[in-house]
Structure of 2-nitropropane dioxygenase:
Amino acid sequence: MKDTSTSPAGTSTPAADRARTAARHELDRLWAAGTDFLGTEYAILGGAMSWVSERHLVSAISNAGGFGVIACGAMSPELLETEIAATQALTTKPFGVNLITMHPQLEDLVQVCLRAGVGHIVLAGGIPPSSAIRAIREGGARVIAFAPALVLAKRLIRMGVDALVIEGAEAGGHVGPVSLTVLAQEILPHITEVPVFVAGGIARGDAIVGFLEQGAAGAQLGTRFAAAAESIAHPRFKEAFIRANARDALTSVQLDPRFPVIPVRGLVNDGSQRFLTHQAETLRRFQAGELSKDEAQLEIEHFWAGALRRAVIDGDVETGSVMAGQSVGMVRSVQSVEDIIAELVDQAVEALIRRSDRREH
Ligand SMILES: Cc1cc2nc3c(=O)[nH]c(=O)nc-3n(C[C@H](O)[C@H](O)[C@H](O)COP(=O)(O)O)c2cc1C
């Protein structure tokens, strides 16, 4: 970690030490709502990433003082139970589980989490059913949900969620249309009832400070953690991240408004081209009466599920889905989770020191 409490000659000065300690306290104050809610040292969540956010990455993030989140994805209740137990064997720190609301066994998955003592369940993939929110809260855990607009944020709070994530279109994976810059302005000033975490395009601690000062409780990062040393992603997947610039992480194109799939942001490659062909072919089969609308919708969604696994696990970065956010341009090397978090905190502290210097001069 870079030491900023040193003079140019390399020796620590009492004034620099005091400034650093004050800035660290200021950071703790700024994200207190987030750290209290998560039970962590830092209000930094590792966003759940299908195939990537399993026991190793999740425990590494939690052990480093952040909040890891297991991506349940399409796992069965039995597999999820195993993954939670394996994660608990690697960390005693809090971590969460991300469940996709359209999973056909959502209720069972919730019960698996509750039985295992998971304290926070993230419900992703649309507005969650009230029954799931109720079951989680009655089971003693907390619910985190995604709010893609202010009106939905208010509705989710009325439904009983305990915290929100606002995720901008800059993020990797399935994204909405609005940037975090705009979502933050639309939502943060108006939500005080629950902690709100920001996600999408964040790769530096000074950016986190900016959002905390706007009222966020903490930040969720995915892309940077996907390339971490502890991530099980294939070396070729991580190399593709290191090579890529922000402009290479584009959203997939929706061919037909009757199939309003959420766009997926990832690195452009042969796979992203194939997705267009796949949609066109699915559309043709739907129009020919070979597939019902629901079946066609599933066909389109299933394309990405298989393609992500190929990229992450098999290292097929040409035809697989290399989901990545625009922050991929700031991934420069494979770093340990501890180094990534230390760097983020260090950048946040430095930003606060600079701010206080500006006030004093
Ligand atoms: C490879 C990849 C897979 C992802 N899979 C999921 C997922 O299964 N569920 C989910 O809620 N979010 C998923 N996300 C989004 C992340 O949880 C996180 O919110 C996002 O990466 C934050 O933006 P950033 O990539 O700019 O840091 C995924 C992101 C990436 C990069």
In short: Residues 337-360 form the longest helix (24 residues).
